[in-house]
Amino acid sequence: MKSLFKPCFKLICLSCLLLLAGCEGDKQAGEKAAQQPVPVVPHQDRFGRYDSIGNLGGKPVSIPGGVVFTWVRYIGDPGDFDSSKQAQKYQRPPITYQLPIDSFGFQYRLTDGAVMSYREQTEEDYLRDNETLIPVGKPFPWGYTIVYNIVDPHQPLNFNKAFTDTQEAKKEVWHFEYFEQPQKVHGLTFFKANNGIDPSTNQPWQDNIAGPDILISKNAQGEIKTYIQCDFVGDVQQCNHRFYLNYMPVMVDIDYNRIYLEKWQQTEKNIAGILDSWVVTDKGALIKKQAGKV
User: Are the C-beta atoms of 51 and 36 separated by less than 8 Å?
Assistant: First the structure.
């Protein structure tokens, strides 16, 4: 009887250990499952295209798929032409409303503030304008817009240094200076290279590559929040317009025909409204009607 009791006792103990191990395993599996991010199902448009989601300026956003020109880049993504082994091994974290966006682009119409969206009337307008206006040199009403997310809390949200560096570089490389003009242009402080005169010929300055016109706008604290460089020679003159938003750390870069420079304030206001329309709740619920989505 004694010899039979020992094996039975050992068997009971082993069963208890296995049961405890199983319970512990189930507990760990449950905790691991709880740690896994909940799958995110982005919103769709009427064509079934999914929105691009992420975090922009500290806010969750849902950008209509038909609006995005090329693709959305996230912080940490390798460059388009990066063929290094590190880039090939890169695995992007799961895309959620908390994943920081690096940048993305879209087409904006200067005349009415519309956003170009593929398979919509705005795309037809964009293609028609490309075919009919550009070949004959007429003003093209669309501006290619890139939005950059500012994630470094130490990065100044102004162009003060960029403006100073540009002037210093022109002095060092091209041996000319920028001079502030006595009158503003559309409310912008206006600077011309060599004061608009070529010192070697005493004739109007004609180098639109080395010395574009510079126009800036400062806030009450003296920070340059709008920084525009424009060509001034030739039939088709272009402007590169950069500005920071007031309500989130984001920088916008847009190129357009100089004839639309007078709309610079409305352009900034409209683009800020477009980006704001894509802001959603932390869980991704829509708050406003999304610009560019029918």
Answer: no
Read off the pLDDT of residues 1-20 as tens digits, 9 standing for 90 and up.
445 444 444 544 445 444 44
What is the per-residue pLDDT across 167-204, written as a single tens digit (0 to 9) for each? Answer: 999 888 888 899 999 999 999 999 999 998 887 788 88
HEC per residue, the chain: CHHHHHHHHHHHHHHHHHHHHHHHHHHHHHHHHHHCCCCCCCCECCCCCECEEEEECCEEEEECCCCCEEEEEECCCCCCCCCCHHHHHCCCCCCCCCCEEEEEEEEEECCCCCECCCCCHHHHHHHHHHHHCHHHCCCCCEEEEEEEECCCCCCCCCCHHHHHHHHHHHHHHHCCCEEECCCCECCEEEEEEHHHEECCCCEECCCCCCCCEEEEEECCCCCEEEEEEECCCCCCCEEEEEEECCCCCEEEEEEEEHHHHHHHHHHHHHHHHHHHHCEECCCCCECCCCCCCC
Q: Are 137 and 235 in contact (CB under 8 A)?
A: yes
Nearest to 148 by CA among 182, 116, 91, 102: 102
Q: Is 275 within 8 Å of 147 (Cβ atoms)?
A: yes
Q: Which two tokens stand for residue 104?
A: 């993305």
| Confidence (pTM) | 0.85
Do the Cβ atoms of 103 and 279 come closer than 8 Å? Answer: no
The Cα 55–Cα 66 span in angstroms is 19
Cα–Cα distance list, 212 to 194, 206, 236 (Å): 11, 9, 14
